[in-house]
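Notes from hallway chat w/ T.B., transcribed later so I don't forget. T.B. wanted the structure written out for a chain they're using in a teaching module, and asked if we could keep both sequence and structure tokens in one place. Agreed to drop them here.
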Amino acid sequence: MHDDTMVLRTLIDDILAGRRPPPTADEIGRYETILPDGPLQIAEAAELFGLTAHTLRYYERAGLVQVDRAPGGRRRYDQRSLGDLLLVHRLRQSDLSMQQIGEVMTAMRQGPIGAQRAAELMREHAVAVRRRIAELQISLAITEHKVDHLEGTTP
């Protein structure tokens, strides 16, 4: 397993164990700097994010990630394309549709006006993610209550 994959898994494990709070936006900005300088081949980039090479090719065909090619035609994932891949992957993990991700990525490539549109789309998504987290917290509380009830620790 790649060291950078371990960083993310360790972060998740620490949050779950109560050893730390979820990261802030500033902290995430620092994590982006630990992405490998590259270039990585497709199998290495896929392993980094726990994805398949097929998924990476799909993201590229969909225009979500732009990847340079080596003289022999092999994909070469540099830090920029790995950063884009990290963003796309986490947006998919948080239920943003492929179409919406495409809008964000396209807007980000269109300079300052596009950046404003991308920020607007991302703010909207952040609200949706917060709502989903709240819904999941309620589901977790209900689940834990039922476990307590079934184990006889709650009336």
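Follow-up for T.B.: The domain at 3-93 is CATH 1.10.1660.10 (Multidrug-efflux Transporter Regulator; Chain: A; Domain 2). Might be a good example for the class.
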